[in-house]
């Protein structure tokens, strides 16, 4: 009897094992989860050749065919692209924590001290400390109020320089003036001094270095997507990054040494770098290193100058194409401010049309056309599609700003749209996904507040202080784009300006 029972138990166990094995085999053969639609691409290199020289434009065209959430195989990597406000909200709000890290890339390695900065660092204690210090002492609301006088001084200095150029009858090279002023603003806050005492070859070289950094860091580098051939540097991008990094490292090292040599002069009046040095404790005795601090300064000087200046340059260019906008802006400013003094930051809330011009420029010409890439830490699902772990995320901010389902006549530059009830409440600070020039979520640009203040105040000052026109002989303005982390004008804007305020308004 016991033998019969044992045999039946053994047979039952065997049958259970066979059935379980069969079920597991069927499960392993079931169809893979559905990925978002997207182009097939090429063998090995995938969709990389489809991006061309203007990836934001190419991806926007693809999205019209494949939809708001699009999947691309990029070499050995997965990439998903969000091209509408709802798709961006799904990734940057609903799934924000899952997409809080950056994927490894050549820019982080060769430009940002191997991701030791705030922009490319992993989401964690070091990133949080760098972000906290930057917000408390430079980029947050209270900090921005504290250095309002610095902005006023540097804008005044820039306006005087423009007046001198106008007296000679020469055109102003707008991006050079803007970079010079903004670098000195940031220098005064970080280092207690202007970093460029005189406009000249040194400041022009800095501008060129910033543009080169933003351009090269925005490239789709083959080595990032096929790591096994990264050592070949087929596009020459990484070699250029290494040379540029050496230039920036020499400049930043010099700044830090000069800052240390003048410590006694700042006794009782610490600047941003003093505060960072004094509050560099992480946890359990771990501290921010000199490399971390150099990398942070690189972030602040490059992103702080190039992104805001590009928005202002595009806005002026658009208005030169449509003088009626200048006329309406001048009428508003003359009514609110008059012509006997300069614009002050406290005037801006009373200038809704100026604010509308700024928003319209951020919509049509976002400083960052494609957000800095993020990467998923675990699998997830969006709009019914499966997104694997390790998938890179790119949000096409440029495409969102030109989405005809969101914006009426999106290719027109029409500031008045932001005075209408439909769009008037839309704000660029990351909560309204129709307009996210600085990104959104926990990895939103740390300088969002500063960027908005600089754009509104500096653009407003340039509009209020001068009449603008194109140089004689320039029939139509070149409005071509140059792709990079920041969306530059392919041809820098040069324009004639003439003072429109009382002479006393331009005095220091």
From TrEMBL:
Catalytic activity: a 3',5'-unsubstituted flavanone + 2 reduced [NADPH--hemoprotein reductase] + 2 O2 = a 3',5'-dihydroxyflavanone + 2 oxidized [NADPH--hemoprotein reductase] + 2 H2O + 2 H(+)
Taxonomic path: Eukaryota, Viridiplantae, Streptophyta, Embryophyta, Tracheophyta
The gene coding this protein: LOC116200281
Transmembrane segments: 5-23, 43-63
Pfam families the record matches: p450 (PF00067)
Chain positions recorded as heme binding sites: 445
Metabolic or biological pathway: Pigment biosynthesis; anthocyanin biosynthesis
Function statement: Catalyzes the 3'5'-hydroxylation of naringenin and eriodictyol to form 5,7,3,'4',5'-pentahydroxyflavanone and 3',5'-hydroxylation of dihydrokaempferol and dihydroquercetin to form dihydromyricetin.
EC number: 1.14.14.81
Name this polypeptide is given: flavonoid 3',5'-hydroxylase
